[in-house]
Write a structure and sequence with these properties.
Strand order of the largest sheet: 1-2
Protein name: 6-hydroxycylohex-1-ene-1-carboxyl-CoA dehydrogenase
InterPro entries: GroES-like_sf
Organism: mine drainage metagenome
Shape: globular
Number of strands: 2
Order of helices and strands: HEHE
Strand content: 5-15%
Distance between the termini: 15 Å
Largest sheet: 2 strands, parallel
Oligomer: single chain
């Protein structure tokens, strides 16, 4: 498979809710600016893991 996506959410959210939330974000109805603490390219994923272990960057978005 060429395009694989995994969504990891917080407790209390049902998997059935993901498609609706994704569509709301896509349409601009919900902003993730207040939720995402950093955005890093895929080649810096190790840095994101180190930040997580250090208690920084709790919600880092990794982009291809």
């Amino acid at each position: 498979m060429f395009f694989e996506y995994e969504i990891v959410g917080s407790l209390g959210c049902r998997p059935v809710d993901y498609p609706r939330v994704i569509e709301m974000v896509r349409k601009g109805m919900v902003s993730l600016d207040a939720v995402v603490t950093a955005t890093l390219p895929l080649d810096r994923i190790g840095e994101a893991a180190e930040d997580l272990r250090a208690g920084k960057g709790l919600r880092t978005l990794i982009v291809p």
